[in-house]
Amino acid sequence: MTIARLLLRSAQLWGEKPALIDELRDHSISFSQMADAAFFFGSKLRRLGLTGGDRVAILGDATPEYLIADYGIMSAGLVRVPLDPSLSVDELANQILDAEARLLLCDDARTELALLLTKKARGTVQHLTIDMGVFDFPARGAIGVTLYDEEIGQSSLASLNYTGGTSGEPKAVVLGHDNLRSIVQNVVMARAMGPGDVMVNMRPLWPIAGIIVCAHLAAGGAVVLGGRFEPTRMVSLLLKYRAATTSMVPTHLVRLLRDCPPATLRSLDALRSVDIGAAAIPLETFEQALDALGPKIGVLYGLTEASWSCYQPPSALDAPLDVRRARMQSVGRPVFGCDVMIDAADGSKFPEQSGEILIRGAHVMKGYWKRPDLSAQVLKNGWFCTGDLGTIDQTGTVSIIGRIKEIIRTGGKSVLPDEIEAALCQHPAVAEVSVVGIPDAEWGELVTAVIVPAPGVDISEQILKDHCAALLSPHKRPKSVQIVRELPKSHYGKIQRSKVRATAMGHSSGETGQTE
Question: Which of 217, 225, 320, 427 is most open to solvent, judged by the fewest CB atoms within 10 Å of its CB?
Answer without folding.
Answer: 320
